[in-house]
Design goal:
globular, Rossmann fold, 20 helices, 50% helix, alpha/beta, 7-stranded parallel sheet, 15% strand
């Protein structure tokens, strides 16, 4: 027993040392990359004068705060239903939200679901003590992952309840392996974990941590969005009497597959491309991929309907979820990048059958959607072409897949209600 205890102590302190060194190495890497990498540059620039910004924003709030931390845009969408439920049912609280990533912060820094939004200062003992003293939260919600040791340790030391929303873990992660003693200790600081699925619950149980299966709060979010979205006559006009394929959050690899398909096949189908990044460099890259078949959304809005173009490139953010209403099928980006599949639930909510690449191991909702028959996985350009042509030629089959997708969403609603019940139980 003593030998096992000594081994665990060694593994814990070794893990802590690696973690601490990694924090400094990450910041150094950002500094080195910032002149050449826009994301790294934004990560650093966004944290300039950060403490002054935090103190200024928090000066208008009272002590009754609830702190949400998210990594980026997708995690904020998971947090938002709980934020909105708190706003509706617990007016005594103010909501503070921190972002780690600029891709989420830049889009949502003025979002009305939160009273105050700012970047999370980089994890350190001093930053954690300072931030938590200023925010002074009554409770904290972390979303899915992005678990920072010093912040969670300080919350735990101050006996502030910490809840993890929409947790999803895999058995190959360090938490569940012999060398992950330090990272396991981070999970042990959480007051309650709300898991997306039973597989995560069982994994946590295997290391002595309990959790409650609530499913994913994103289902509640996308379903609510569907109820609130307005029609887009310009998109309806572009579609006309054609079938419409929407490429959502695409990267170059998906766009190349689409370009090959449209060049090689004759069909009554139009394409809308809403890339993951919409800077001028990316839009120009897409235009070069599709030659002269395209029109930009910003141009289309000005000149109106253009029947000569079969491809519409969305060169702004914030309208993809509205566009899915008009899709007959969707191709979701990120599935050919390591760990990068983007939101498949928005399209499914409208009963749109979806296609995506094979990198889905971090996305249990993708595997579940395939299992119920609401989506198809494609491994390459030929696979994509075969499946899309089949759906173009077989309307009844396509509509049945879409129906299964919509049913999948409705079957997974209710996570927010369960979270609120457990957190605010009288």
């Amino acid at each position: 027993m003593k030998m096992n205890s000594n081994i665990n102590k060694f593994l814990f302190y070794s893990g802590f040392l690696v973690y601490t060194i990694s924090l400094y190495a990450y910041r150094l890497a950002l500094f080195i990359a910032s002149p050449f990498n826009l994301r790294a540059k934004k990560m650093l620039e966004g944290r300039l004068n950060l403490w002054q910004n935090i103190e200024q924003k928090l000066s208008t709030l009272h002590d009754n705060t609830i702190w949400f931390h998210v990594s980026s845009l997708g995690e904020y969408e998971q947090a938002r239903p709980v934020m909105e439920a708190i706003r509706l049912n617990h007016l005594e609280y103010k909501i503070v939200c921190t972002f780690f990533s600029p891709s989420g912060y830049d889009i949502l820094k003025n979002d009305k679901a939160s009273d105050c939004i700012f970047y999370l200062p980089f994890d350190s003992h001093s930053n954690a003590k300072r931030l938590i003293k200023i925010v002074n939260p009554k409770m904290a919600f972390w979303v899915k992952y992005d678990l920072w040791h010093f912040y969670l340790q300080e919350l735990h030391n101050k006996k502030i309840p910490i809840y993890l929303l929409s947790a999803s873990f895999r058995n190959n992660q360090p938490y569940f392996n012999w060398y992950g003693v330090f990272l396991k200790s981070i999970l042990q600081k959480l007051t309650l974990i709300f898991s997306q699925n039973n597989e995560t619950k069982l994994l946590l149980n295997s290391i002595g941590i309990s959790s409650i299966v609530t499913k994913d709060t994103r289902f509640d979010r996308v379903y609510r969005n569907v109820q609130q979205l307005h029609e887009m006559p310009a998109i309806s006009a572009f579609k006309g009497n054609s079938l419409l394929l929407v490429a959502g959050s695409s990267y170059h690899i998906e766009e190349k597959i689409l370009a090959d398909f449209f060049a090689a096949n004759t069909h009554n189908c139009k394409l809308i491309i809403a890339p993951h990044f919409v800077d001028e460099k990316r839009i120009t890259e897409i235009e070069s991929t599709f030659h002269n078949q395209y029109i930009r959304w910003s141009e289309y809005e000005l000149i109106g309907e253009d029947q000569d173009k079969k491809i519409l490139i969305i060169d702004c953010i914030g309208i993809l979820s509205k566009i899915y209403r008009y899709a007959d099928f969707a191709f979701i980006g990120g599935g050919f990048k390591h760990g990068g599949l983007h939101n498949i639930l928005e399209a499914a909510c409208f009963g749109v059958p979806t296609l995506f690449g094979p990198e889905i191991k971090k996305f249990p909702e993708a595997a579940a959607l395939i299992k119920v028959g609401g989506s198809k996985l494609v491994r390459d350009s030929n696979d994509f072409s075969d499946q899309l042509q089949y759906w173009i030629k077989n309307a009844d089959e396509r509509k049945q897949v879409g129906k299964q997708a919509a049913n999948f969403i409705s079957d997974n609603l209710g996570a927010t209600e369960l979270v609120m019940k457990h957190v605010f139980a009288k």
